[in-house]
TrEMBL record:
This is 5-formyltetrahydrofolate cyclo-ligase. Keywords: ATP-binding, Magnesium, Metal-binding, Nucleotide-binding. InterPro entries: FTHF_cligase, FTHF_cligase-like_sf, NagB/RpiA_transferase-like. It comes from Blepharisma stoltei. One of its GO terms (molecular function) is metal ion binding. PANTHER family: 5-FORMYLTETRAHYDROFOLATE CYCLO-LIGASE (PTHR23407:SF1), ATPASE INHIBITOR/5-FORMYLTETRAHYDROFOLATE CYCLO-LIGASE (PTHR23407). The keyword Nucleotide-binding applies. It catalyses: (6S)-5-formyl-5,6,7,8-tetrahydrofolate + ATP = (6R)-5,10-methenyltetrahydrofolate + ADP + phosphate. Its EC number is 6.3.3.2. Pfam families: 5-FTHF_cyc-lig.
């Protein structure tokens, strides 16, 4: 099954790269759509009591979740970014002030908040998607970090954030794969 997943992952990464490049070609429209379509869909699917939101620092062709997080910050949410602390470990979440200059390079060269920033337990974990299906399963880069994290934070709402074109009919599911609660794309929310 891992060979099938690996081949699918590569195909989906190429698809996402193509989608992202085309959408970013009209940058003003890209960010306007994030502000007027994607962000309201995320807010609609977050319980009112939620105050701590974790997103992700976008890598390559991932949706610009930094921009989404800035919109949450403007509405007085506490925002966090995930931090890899070790192989085969769940992620931790450090509070972020929303400023690019306050980030440092973490494992895998991913930008993360400074180690002096408080560790938080997010009410909501927004996760990137390489691909997803209508059963609310996602495929990521294959390291299992988010699946381990979802198990470590069972009370956090799990939201996948991606492009509608990343939808596949059905993903191969393994024992350690954890379902999302919601998937949000520019086209709508899947529950």
């Amino acid at each position: 099954m891992e060979t099938t997943k690996k081949a699918l992952r590569l195909k989906l990464l190429e698809r996402r790269k193509f989608i992202h490049k085309n959408l970013l070609s009209i940058q003003d429209l890209y960010y306007e759509n994030l502000r007027t379509k994607t962000f309201p869909l995320l807010k609609e699917n977050i319980p009112p009591r939620s105050r701590i939101i974790s997103g992700f620092y976008p890598i390559g062709s991932e949706i610009d979740c930094k921009f989404i997080l800035s919109l949450f910050k403007q509405q007085s949410y506490i925002i966090c970014l995930p931090v890899v602390i070790g192989k085969d470990q769940p992620l931790i979440f450090r509070e972020w002030d929303g400023e690019e200059k306050s980030l440092v390079e973490g494992m895998y060269r991913i930008k993360v908040p400074n180690s002096e920033n408080p560790i938080r337990v997010p009410d909501v974990i927004i996760t990137p998607l390489v691909g997803f299906d209508l059963n609310l399963y996602r495929i990521g880069y294959g390291g299992g970090y988010y699946d381990r994290t979802f198990k470590a934070f069972p009370n956090s709402l799990r939201i996948g954030l991606g492009y509608s074109e990343q939808l596949v009919e059905e993903l191969p599911v393994e024992e350690n794969d954890v379902k999302l609660h919601v998937i949000v794309t520019e086209e709508g929310a899947i529950k």
